[in-house]
Amino acid sequence: MNLSDVIKRPLITEKATSLKAMSNAVLFAVDKRANKKEVREAVEKMFKVKVDDVRTMNVAGKVKRRGRTVGLRPGWKKAIVVLKAGDKIEFFEGV
């Protein structure tokens, strides 16, 4: 799997911002087939940082209704990447 295929996008939420401030952790939406080793390698090579820990979880899709029709949003995979002390990833610099 290609490095750019492993990491889909960063997750910028309230929880992600507080995790970044408290424990130097960054959240990413990753490919469902990616494992922890692939996520670690991709983050280290793409952002030039050292990774301390990687935690992954599968997020189930939500059930949505429109009238009588019931549908399901697709599930996805989330990775919490804890960086070594001194390293950081900035997504919005100078904003």
Backbone CA Rg: 15 Å
List unreliable stretches of 5+ residues. none
State the end-to-end CA separation. 33 Å
CATH uppermost class:
Alpha Beta
Beta content comes to 35-45%
Shape by Cα distribution: globular
Query: Helix segment count?
Result: 3
Level of helix content?
25-40%
CATH homologous superfamily placement: RRM (RNA recognition motif) domain
Regarding quaternary structure, how should these chains be classified? Answer: single chain
- The CATH architecture is 2-Layer Sandwich
Tally of distinct domains: 1
User: Would you count the extended β strands for me?
Assistant: 6
* CATH topology descriptor: Alpha-Beta Plaits
List the helices and strands and how they pair.
Layout: H1 3-6, E1 7-10, H2 14-23, E2 25-30, H3 36-47, E3 51-59, E4 63-66, E5 69-72, E6 76-83
Antiparallel strand pairs: 1-2, 2-6, 3-6, 4-5
Question: Which features does this protein show?
Answer:
single chain, 95 residues, alpha+beta, 4-stranded antiparallel sheet
Write a short abstract of this structure.
With 95 residues, the protein is of the alpha+beta class. Helix content is 27%, strand content 37%. The strands form two sheets. The chain has a four-stranded antiparallel β-sheet. The chain has a two-stranded antiparallel sheet with strand order 4-5.
Would you give an account of this structure?
The chain is an alpha+beta fold and 95 residues long. The protein has a single domain, classed as 2-Layer Sandwich (Alpha-Beta Plaits). A four-stranded antiparallel beta sheet has the order 1-2-6-3. The longest helix is centred in the middle third of the chain and has 12 residues. The termini are far apart. The model has no long low-confidence stretch (mean pLDDT 93).
